[in-house]
Amino acid sequence: MKETEIKDKMWGWVVLSRPPFQTVGILPFILGTLLAWKIEHAFNGTVFLLGISAVILIMLSTYYTGEYSDYKEDAISQKIYKSRFAGGTGIIPSGIIPRKPLIWVGLLTIITAGLIGIILQFVLKTGIYTIPLGAIGLFSGFFYSTRPIRFVERGIGELLIGLCYGWLPIAVAFYIQAGHIAPIIHWMGLPVGFTIFNVILLNEFHDYIADKTVGKKNMLVRLGIKRGVVIYALASIFAWITMFLSIQAGVPIKGLYLYIPVMTLSAVITTMVLRKGYENRDTLEVLCGLNIVINLGTTLSYVLAFV
User: Fold this and answer.
1) Which string of DSSP letters, residue by residue, matches 271-305?
2) Which of 42, 125, 163, 275 is most buried, taking the most CB atoms under 10 A from its CB?
3) Which residues have C-beta within 8 Å of that of residue 107, sequence separation ≥ 6?
4) Which whole-number Å values give the CA distances from 114 to 50, 120, 126, 137, 227, in the listed order?
5) Predicted confidence (pLDDT) per residue in 73-114, tens digit
6) How big is the CA angle at 287 (ends 282 and 292), to the nearest 5 degrees?
7) CA torsion 216→290→240→34, rounded to 10°?
């Protein structure tokens, strides 16, 4: 194998791993760890490193198996419009990395994450709910796109994303440090969950034609564009409301001040979606990017509020 070919394959695996999109799982985990330190004065460095490694491995498995399972619709979507936020990475259709190894690497990463869970619960004694909580993310991530379960085709995949990138990493990070889950976390998980739900839903607008062509019955295909727009707007409103409720539940008021610019941006994007801004592919690309900013900004507002 030539040196340039080796470099191409290495770069291909980096692209398949989607480093920028790892942040939407890593930041909520950091938030949960920070809360454990601030509320319970609990922090174990080894537990943190193992826990965040498991989170990254589960996300890697989700991304690899997604590329493996969605290659048909991704190939169609890439021909229509090459988006940075939907339609896969384009690595498989390009031939840089063969498709088959992805499912095996996905299995390897998910098994490794499971072994970390065993170490956390039985060696480091992080609590009896460590493995059950981790299993929610592990199972949902691996079978999000993978057959025979394939949650993304059952109309609930987007809801599971909201759970597994919202409440779950915050709760797990807190639990493995403190041994319980503080009630305030349930409130904080809601706006984070609603915003990541919207990230996935808006990304599906790019893939709507491709998904419909191959019969991929995700939430947007089931509901249709018009209802999808309404669901997006409602999720945005629920994110705003639950952020205010979390302040009442005990989040420092500074979190609200930090969130106001994020909420303003969210309102602008929601208005543009309601006005059919998604019909222009380039505009939709920008909206999808800003959508991720809203999710990260929501989580960061909480992080900075407690810092």
Assistant:
1) HHHHTTGGGSHHHHHHHHHHHHHHHHHHHHHHHHH
2) 163
3) 61
4) 11, 10, 14, 10, 38
5) 888 887 888 888 887 888 888 888 999 999 999 999 999 999
6) 130
7) 100
CA-based angle 182:28:47, to the nearest 5? 75
Q: Is the dihedral of CA 179, 60, 234, 243 positive or negative?
A: positive
Nearest Cα neighbor of 58 from 112, 125, 20 is 112
Return the H-helix or E-strand segment holding 102. helix 100-118
Mention every residue, 6+ apart, whose C-beta is less than 8 A from residue 246. 184, 187, 188, 190, 191, 255, 302
The domain locations on the chain are: 3-306
Instruction: Tell me whether residue 100 is exposed, middle or buried, using C-beta atoms within 10 angstroms of its C-beta: 0 to 12, 13 to 18, 19 or more.
Output: exposed
Least Cα distance to 281 among 125, 81, 102, 112 occurs for: 81
Q: Is 127 helix (H, G, I), strand (E, B) or coil?
A: coil
Mean pLDDT of 218-231: 96
Query: pLDDT-derived band of residue 296, with 50, 70 and 90 as boundaries?
Result: very high
